[in-house]
Amino acid sequence: VEHLLRDVKDNTVSTLSTKVSEKVQSLRGLKARLEEIKSYMDKVVDGSLPVNHEIMGHLQDAFNLLPNLNLEDYVKGFAVKTNDMMLVIYLSSLIRSVIALHDLINNKVLNKERERQVDGLAAKDKENAEPA
After folding, report:
1. Residue 1, domain member (yes or no)
2. DSSP secondary structure of 18-86
C-alpha cells in the first residue's frame, strides 16, 4: 500500500488545521489571561493588594460586553450555529476522504500502466536479444 500512497498528495493537511491550531493557541492565551485576572481578584479579596479602580473599570466594561446566555433565543441560536458548523466539518472531512481515495485509485492505475510499459519494454528487449 505504501508504494501506492507515495505520490498521493496529502489532502488532510489544510488551512482548516492551521485555523484550528490558531484558535487553540488563542484559547490558551485567553485562559492564561483569565487565570491572571482571577489571581488578581483573589489577592484583592484577601487584602494583599489594594483595589485598582482603573482595572475594575476595564473588567466591568469587559463583562458588560458579554451576552446574556440565559435567554432561550441565545441558547437555541448557539445550538443551531454549532450544528451547522459540525455539518460543514463532517461534509468537508467526507469530501476530503473521497478525494484522497480518488487520488489513491488514480495512483494505482498510473503504477499499473508504468508496470505494463516496463514489462512491454522488457519483452521487446528480450525479443531483440534472441537471434532469429
Report:
1. no
2. HHHHHHHHHHHHHHHHHHHHHHHHHHHHHTSS---HHHHHHHHHHHHHS--TTSHHHHHHHHHHHHHHH
